[in-house]
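#struct-queue
[09:14] JT: dropping the first one here, sequence first, then the structure tokens:
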Amino acid sequence: MSDPSTIEAFWRDFLTSQPDQERSSPPEAWGFGDNPQMADELGRLVTAGIKTATCSALWEVEAEGSPLPQVGDLSIILDGDGQPLCVVETVEVAIRAYDAVDAAFAYAEGEGDRSLDYWREAHRRFFARILPAIGLQFDEAMPLVCERFRVVYRPPAVHNTGESPGPIAA
């Protein structure tokens, strides 16, 4: 569970590093997947610059009443303990059927061996696990919200790629 004061402090650090950023309250803070281990693993891939895309079931977004991500949105990515890892900016959003996701998107998701075969199997298992909670079942034609993003801030404490920490150049 994330601590609001930790999120606020992280956001203030981000704002300090981005003098042109509009001063506002923190954006949505969230972790990848449906369990702490997945949030840790995928969060590490993001901070390492390997994972630059993600997807979710449109059906789940609609069931939650959540807005679709928009280009330019900022998000705080959390680890499995709810601790902030980085800030990402959405750079592309597309609705695609599961069976229309291509190898380039699978590669950008950064998981496993980054192949389309790996992506399909891992996401089939994931969606088969989460969709029953909203009364639906996995379907190869199901619509996905496919999102590409870029890291715009990561503090030195979570930086592990050998580049200088802090703001990320566009």
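[09:21] JT: and here's the second one, same format:
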Amino acid sequence: MHEYSIRPIKTNYTNMKNRIDQLFANKKKNIISIFFTAGYPNLRSTEEIILQLDKSGVDLIEIGFPFSDPLADGPTIQQSNQVAIKNGMTVETLFAQLENIREKTTIPIILMGYLNPVVQYGENRFIEKCAAIGIDGILIPDMPIDYYEKHLQSLCENHGIHNVLMITPQTSDARVKIIDEKSKGFV
């Protein structure tokens, strides 16, 4: 289990559409964010988990899309990725499962995973699909900032998808400033 704190980004909250911004505009502390791997424990568990988390009062959901080599994750998430892939979970399958999720919940949803599956799916197609089904943000820890700027920043901004970046205790102050400028929603 990863333990971290969420720091909202200062945002002009007028005319906002993104549910992440709405969450931070309406709730200032004690925000509960839960991560789970899509397709774990069963291929069809994703929607059920989302609805149970929403019913339980979770504020924000991070759904991991599995990757075959999740080297930056610990053994628990690595194992859930392996099971999800064995169960048949793919980015395409996840999008299909989330196709009508906005008819059932308004909770902010972030897709979290590695850059390789996004590139294989196609950056434009990935972001457009996120926007079409109501995904609020992406969190791709292995995506370099310069790659984001070149390939995804304008797509995310044009489609209202927040790119959430992470800071470690070892992150330099100079890099924290860059991450703060490029991250949307929260750090």
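[09:30] RK: nice, looked through the second one.
[09:31] RK: The CA atoms of residues 8 and 146 lie 22 Å apart.
[09:31] JT: good to know. The beta strands are 33-37, 60-64, 109-112, 137-139, 162-163.
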